[in-house]
Design a protein that fits this description.
The protein is mostly beta strands and 205 residues long. A hairpin with a 5-residue loop joins strand 7 and strand 8.
């Protein structure tokens, strides 16, 4: 893009409205000797496909903070309780970045917060004893969470974020315990339609 955020292998780059590089946030893991011990730094991050928004998750010496950045390059909000599910990153973005799913610590488990780009929590789901993964459709309307309880089989939770509707399906009912939700709200498993989250159209008069 002429301006905005781009992710490279080892950094997030921000370009201003003139297309000039105006900021760089390093990504990766490195060590720093300090007072006879070694401080470990680790930073993950990514950018929305459209380049308007980006985030970093910085872990230093056991402490972590997630930061969310806007089109101008400024930090819009931060979250100190952010953590990552078993598979994936602590935050997933819609294509434009206006909507995101944030994984964060909540009591003895993990919860998932639906966030707007200004940092408002629109909906919080959970807590889950074990959160395996979370997915968000490009349009930011539908989401999929996979979670479980100790010594129990997993559950797929499908969400309509706009309607704040939720449907839980035991993973054993899905082909190979896998499923995906499309931008139209259709849930498919093994190439077959399982159900749809999309609101039903009113009957014709």
């Amino acid at each position: 893009p002429a301006n905005g955020w781009i992710k490279r292998s080892s950094s997030l780059l921000h370009y201003d409205s003139s297309g000039t590089l105006s900021g760089e946030l390093p990504l990766g893991r490195w060590e720093e000797p300090l007072g006879g011990r070694v401080i470990v730094h680790e930073t993950r991050g990514s950018a929305a496909r459209g380049g308007s928004f980006a985030w970093t998750w910085e872990k230093v010496d056991g402490r972590a903070v997630l930061r969310f950045f806007g089109p101008s390059g400024r930090e819009l909000w931060s979250e100190g309780a952010a953590t990552a599910p078993e598979s994936g990153e602590p935050l997933v973005l819609s294509a434009g970045g206006e909507t995101s799913l944030l994984c964060r610590r909540s009591g003895a488990g993990l919860s998932v917060a639906v966030k707007s780009f200004v940092g408002n929590t629109l909906w919080e789901i959970g807590p889950f004893p074990i959160l395996h993964a979370m997915e968000l459709t490009d349009n930011g309307r539908y989401a999929l969470l996979r979670w479980s309880e100790p010594d129990k089989s997993a559950t797929h939770t499908f969400l309509d974020l706009e309607a704040k509707a939720r449907k839980d399906v035991p993973s054993g009912e899905l082909l190979l315990g896998q499923a995906a939700v499309g931008e139209d709200g259709t849930v498919r498993s093994g190439g077959k339609t399982v159900f749809s989250l999309a609101p039903k159209a009113p009957p014709a008069p």
